[in-house]
Amino acid sequence: MTAPSRVLVREVRAETVIAAPPAVVWRVLTDFASYPAWNPFIRSIEGKPWVGTRLSVEIRPPERGSMRFRPTVLRVAKDRELRWIGRVLIAGLFDGEHRFTIVREGDGSRFIQAEVFTGLLVPVFDLTGSFRATGQGFLLMNQALKERAERAASGRPS
């Protein structure tokens, strides 16, 4: 009889309803140069949101130190989705496929931020509380994005 395997997949997800149309949410989301002014979780992104591009991303989960990684953009669908994948050292060790999804909801939008983590090191990261901190970071970023997009949609200054 074999021992049960440890979970090697983990998803972290947060959703927010925003009183702004998808085009406004997209504009705020892809204005990487402004991230330091408003984003408490993703402190900076360098690069362009183009498929195949490698970005340089700095995150700062709550009560954790900053971390920088270089994901590759997988999908860009204007006003709808931005997706990238980041890896630690080699594929299969610890991979994270991050997606930002914007869905029209009435006159506004539903913003979904999610990441699916896979690989041999997933159980280790689970033990360190990293997924909990990442989820808190998603919530903080989603709230800040909501506030900034709603101000932009209303014509108020950021």
Automatic annotation (TrEMBL):
PANTHER family in alphabetical order: CHROMOSOME 9, WHOLE GENOME SHOTGUN SEQUENCE, SRPBCC DOMAIN-CONTAINING PROTEIN
InterPro entries membership: Polyketide_cyclase/dehydratase (IPR019587), START-like_dom_sf (IPR023393)
Pfam families per the UniProt record, alphabetical: Polyketide_cyc2
Superkingdom of the organism of origin: Archaea
Organism encoding this protein: Methanoculleus palmolei
Name of protein: SRPBCC domain-containing protein
CDD domains given in the database record: SRPBCC_4
